[in-house]
Design goal:
52% of the residues lie in helices and 0% in strands. The mean pLDDT is 95.
């Protein structure tokens, strides 16, 4: 059984798969688009490389956005890195989310 912490983040990122991503999206009331799924997968790749959820500024720039993540904020209706990390089964990010 998949375990989540009190904030709704998975305790073990290795148990994640895309079915779990869609389950979390439903739980959080998020309608996933193909672009959102691509961003979640990209964040998981960045996490694999650096063992940390990337800050909003870096992640936005990586995807052609501005340093304040305007597009990501609109796409995820605020707190994009928190939502991306949660959907990706990653730890809760700190700092700008």
């Amino acid at each position: 059984m998949i375990e989540f912490n009190e904030a709704g983040f998975m305790k073990n990122p290795d148990e994640w798969d895309e079915i779990i991503m869609h389950t979390i999206a439903n739980r959080e009331g998020i309608r996933l688009s193909a672009e959102m799924v691509d961003l979640v997968l990209s964040c998981r790749e960045q996490y694999e490389l650096n063992q940390t959820v990337p800050p909003l500024r870096e992640f936005s720039k990586l995807h052609g956005g501005d340093r304040i993540g305007t597009h990501l904020n609109k796409l995820f209706n605020g707190a994009p890195m928190k939502k991306i990390a949660m959907l990706g089964g990653l730890p809760q990010p700190t700092g700008c989310v």
